[in-house]
């Protein structure tokens, strides 16, 4: 099998798996965030395996397929936002890896991740607060919602790093043969 054909076939299966995760998030309500994160991790796989441009195409294709198939469109929007964040984080990781003047790469990566996340998260809190809390957000509740998002970012990034290194790192040799 040619390399490009293998990449396309595997990325199609990976996109189907990510859409399946979004659909399962709509069906199994208690594990919605778990399934959506699992689907978004596929964007990280596509970026690390085949590059930024291919990862962006993968994100676009899986987001469109999710919007067509998934019953809850809000889960598709959440998946797309998480995938976009992961793609931007991988762009940052790639740029920091190539930069020779940065001495503390891990600190620069986390700072960049916080900036990317907050550029996406703060407008969502301000313009669509009902996505996060059913009632009104008043006073100190704004800070609580913001802090909980930062905690969620740390958990999401740690889970993504663990997934990339330990789970995908072990499964890769069995799934990708070219």
Explain what the structure shows.
- The structure is a single chain.
- By secondary structure, the chain is mainly α.
- It has one domain (about 5-175).
- Helix content is about 80%, strand content about 0%.
- It is built from 6 helices and no strands.
- Helix 1 (about 5-25) runs antiparallel to helix 2 (about 30-50).
- The model has no long low-confidence stretch (mean pLDDT about 90).
Give the key terms.
single chain; 178 residues; mainly alpha
Which helices and strands, and how do they pair?
Blueprint (H helix, E strand, L loop, with lengths): L2 H25 L4 H19 L1 H18 L3 H26 L6 H23 L13 H35 L3
How would you sum up this structure in a few lines?
Helices cover 82% and strands 0% of the residues.
The number of helices is 6
Order of helices and strands: HHHHHH
DSSP strand tally: 0
Contiguous low-pLDDT stretches (5 residues minimum) are: none
Share in β-strands: under 5%
